[in-house]
Amino acid sequence: MITDSREVKAEFLKAAIAEAQLGLKEGGIPIGCVIVHQGKIIGRGHNRRVQNGSTVLHGEMDAFENAGRQSAQVYRECELYTTLSPCPMCSGAILLYGIPKVIVGENQTFMGEEEHLKSRGVEVEVMQDAKCIEMMREFIEAKPELWNEDIGV
């Protein structure tokens, strides 16, 4: 079940934003994600690279990890909501598991691999959510060294 209702999308994006805010509160990078299957969140996560000393726990990767082991069929019926445009690593996981639709909170502060996802048949919708934009702009301004580390600069 792919969601078309703007109100439902806003609620799932709000859950991803809550994850991002949790990450920020923990001292990490404010990027959050939820994975939705048939109208229900099956995985949620936030960037925990700083908190866990991890090289790979971006918000999307954390959400996949927290969704646990799912069949390929389940993932092919999911939507992924992320507060920020997915990087190459997270886009690779989206493609690997066959997620058909990605809803992005914003791509003004960072443009990820949206075109690559689209070229592989993934529907990508960008919301340009004001809260997502503000959260990332404030973080990048306050901690540019941490942001640059996260995106490999």
Order of helices and strands: HEEHHHEHEHEHH
Catalogue the unreliable spans: none
- Give the overall average pLDDT: 95
Structural class: alpha/beta
Beta-strand portion reads 15-25%
First-residue to last-residue Cα separation: 38 Å
Principal-axis shape: globular
Please report the number of helical segments. Answer: 8
Q: Rg to the nearest angstrom?
A: 14 Å
How are the strands of the biggest sheet laid out side by side? Answer: 2-1-3-4-5
* Main sheet summary: 5 strands, mixed
Number of strands: 5
Give a structural overview.
It is built from 8 helices and 5 strands; from the N terminus they run αββαααβαβαβαα. The protein is an alpha/beta fold. A 5-stranded mixed beta sheet has the order 2-1-3-4-5. α7 packs across α8 (144-150). The relative contact order is 0.16. The model has no long low-confidence stretch (mean pLDDT 95).
Give structural attributes.
alpha/beta; five-stranded mixed beta sheet; single chain; 153 residues
Quick summary:
The protein is α/β, with parallel strands linked by helices. It has helices at residues 6-25, 49-52, 59-67, 72-75, 88-96, 114-119, 130-142, 144-150, and strands at 32-37, 40-46, 78-82, 101-104, 123-126.
